[in-house]
Specification:
single chain; 77 residues; 434 Repressor (Amino-terminal Domain); 5 helices
Length: 77
């Protein structure tokens, strides 16, 4: 799950999944699947979300080398 994105969307910006999906031009189900890490966000979507929230991409998304179920994060053990 994209925990940082969920927290920003829900708790800091008070937006629904539908509102963010509409901004990205995708269905709410598609956005939900991406937020739950069932499908990856495209680079364009990550750039758009970064701009939308006024934050750096790395402050929103986990490093690309992070794999669900592991504790390894790029640069740390």
């Amino acid at each position: 799950m994209q925990i940082k994105l969920y927290d920003i969307r829900k708790n800091k910006k008070h937006l629904t999944q539908q509102q963010v999906a509409e901004y990205l031009g995708i269905s709410t189900k598609s956005y939900r699947d991406k937020e739950l890490s069932r499908h990856p966000f495209t680079q364009d979507e990550m750039f758009k979300l970064s701009s939308y929230f006024g934050m750096k991409m790395e402050d929103i998304f986990l490093p690309r080398k992070y794999h669900i179920g592991t504790k390894e994060v790029e640069g740390r053990q």
